[in-house]
Design the sequence.
């Protein structure tokens, strides 16, 4: 297993919950998204914001990735299920990140089952630079996803330049999808767009059976949300 690049951070202050991702054409679980939790800070957003203010965001991001993979491996999921790992754009472009990720790819039994999920919670300052690093990441066998698509202004340009393996639609488009024709048209457009470009679309934030039914009717295949499974400790998800 890889080294933690900043040994001054303590592993005891963080842990993870894992939320299942399903193929709704077969109703089979394909993997999990990792969600950071902290014993000292109430919300992950607060934890990352504190790290950003302390100029430790890269350290927290890489520590979270390391610990999530270690937990996944220790619980017997490595090599079987996909693992979506959240990461900020500033971490992706950090000078040490590619060395870190190459070491992970070499040590993990099935690196193609690891997906780095780039968050739109942080603005992308240089899309060309990010796209170049995404290409390097994909060369290691690890896949790349763009999260919260539809939320940020740089979404379409980022997708075209970076060509991610997965995109995850922002939960705004799922909320009340069963009653909104406008949202249904947009979701159908994104489903067709991804099919044409050979990208996989994960639709997040599904909370009602009627929303799930509409997604399936529109042709969606991969989905995530409370109606399919809540985030939990891995020991409870086997």
Sequence:
């Amino acid at each position: 297993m890889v080294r933690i690049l900043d040994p001054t951070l303590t592993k005891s202050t963080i842990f993870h919950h894992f939320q299942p991702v399903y193929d709704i054409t077969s109703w089979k679980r394909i993997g999990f998204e990792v969600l950071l939790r902290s014993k000292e800070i109430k919300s992950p957003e607060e934890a990352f914001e504190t790290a950003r203010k302390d100029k430790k965001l890269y350290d927290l991001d890489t520590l979270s990735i390391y610990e999530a993979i270690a937990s996944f491996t220790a619980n017997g999921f490595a090599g079987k299920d996909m693992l979506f790992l959240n990461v900020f754009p500033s971490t992706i472009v950090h000078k040490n990140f590619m060395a870190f990720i190459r070491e992970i790819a070499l040590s993990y039994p099935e690196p193609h089952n690891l997906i780095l999920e780039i968050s739109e919670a942080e603005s992308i300052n240089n899309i060309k630079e990010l796209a170049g690093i995404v290409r390097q990441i994909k060369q290691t066998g690890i896949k790349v996803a763009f999260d919260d698509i539809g939320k940020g202004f740089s979404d379409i340009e980022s997708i075209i330049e970076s060509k991610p393996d997965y995109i995850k639609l922002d939960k705004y488009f799922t909320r009340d999808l069963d009653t909104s024709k406008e949202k249904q048209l947009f979701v159908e457009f994104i489903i067709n767009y991804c099919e044409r470009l050979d990208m996989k679309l994960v639709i997040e934030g599904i909370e009602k059976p009627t929303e799930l039914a509409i997604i399936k009717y529109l042709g969606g295949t991969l989905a995530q949300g409370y109606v399919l499974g809540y985030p939990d400790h891995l020991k409870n998800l086997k």
Observations:
- Residues 1-9 have pLDDT under 50 and may be disordered.
- Strands lie at 14-23, 28-38, 82-87, 114-118, 143-149, 166-169, 200-203, 222-223.
- The CA atoms of residues 191 and 229 lie 22 Å apart.
- The longest helix spans residues 57-74.
